[in-house]
Request: fold
Amino acid sequence: MLHHYLIEPDMRHKLDLLAENYLGYTTVPIESLIGKKGKKQLSMRTIDVEKVKEYAGEDADITWQLYQKFQPTLAENNLEDLYRKVEAPVSVVLADMEYEGVALDTDFLNEYAKELTEDLGKIQTEIHEMAGLEFNIGSTKQLGEVLFDKMEIPYKGKKNTKSGWYSTDEQTLQRLADKHPIADKILEFRGVKKLLNTYVEALPKLINPKSGRVHTTFNQAVASTGRLSSSDPNLQNIPIRTERGRKVRQAFIPRSENHILLAADYSQIELRLMAAMSGDTNMKTAFIDGLDIHSATAAKVYGVDLEAVDKTMRRNAKMVNFGIIYGISAFGLAQRLDIKRSEAKMLIDEYFKQYPDIERFMNDSIDSARENGYVETLLGRRRYLKDIHSKNHTQRAFAERTAINMPIQGTAADMIKLAMIDVQAEMKARNLQSRMILQVHDELLFDVYKPELDEMRELVIDKMTNAMELEVPIVVEAGIGQNWLEAH
Reply:
């Protein structure tokens, strides 16, 4: 699976599918032994050994045949090191983290569920008052009719051709926000409902009765950038941009009174990698001098002294800094900052004047993708871009943006994996009682045995900072607390 993930990151990697595609062989489906998913599905331990041995033997044989097929391809594409030094060892670290799990404060979640239910009721009442009638806010059909037929809010979207209903997706509602305050209220209603259903009410039910903790599954072969994802439950998607969402982190606690949580995350890692990978002197210097990168960018773009940078300048520069990594256009920037397109274009043009090597890096990434059909991270992880020559402008533009972003985002993913491997190895070598329990993109969470706190903080910061050798300083921020919110 991991070999194929490195060779073809955008494809699926299930054994049955790979057997079909690469060996022309159809495997015995597990359903033929234990039945289809559901309450009536049997356990493998109840099946006759004679039947199971054929199924298990086939799995082992197909795995061996696929290994022999993928191994030479891995070598041809210079991916052996990435597999051996990153993907294989990090899989062991992830198994340890899944086994450890994380403790939850169920009393807090039960109280918070009551609070959110109350909030939901209030928001629903406000929406009904604004609309002048009661209706089911969760029904796309009813919501569309209320907003666009009864309230006559101007609608620019297209009706769904199959159902004939108005679209009321997030994008549509965001566009309506300046036309009527009801749009923001509906978005708030949906956000609270999702928080309540997906996390606050769901998490306590997922506590393992044996360990007393929640055990997520880390998916190593899903995101084509090399990033990890998390499921059952997804602990990487807790919305932390809203106060209500952040509060969910309060429920994650140490395993005992002898433990405390330590959260360590990379500061502005993608921007630092952009500076290092592009080699841009101005941006590298700003990081080396320890300047606030958004203020430093604002000073350069607006042509003022650092001290003269105001909040609006810094906010605009911050949006350009992060937007550039994702290949933002003048139109996109204008929309995000609510400014004229001409001003947005001026900001981007000035940005590239001040950071010329970043523009060169972006153009080189696109050229490389056109020439080779893929782009790479610093460690050689590849992402193939089949639409880079597409005649369809939208598809081609998306491939070009990916060509810019993937080497940076993928290198950040490789970097934290290396850090996880190094931290775990050192913790085991020192026989520490503390445990690494979660990874959320640029952040690692540890359940620390209190007497080891100083040692752990020093160890984690050191290994994360030095996971890769780069020409810009890497900054790791670490905090402690009695819950995840406090530690972050």
Notes: The chain has 20 helices and eleven strands. Residues 60 and 66 are 10 Å apart (CA to CA).
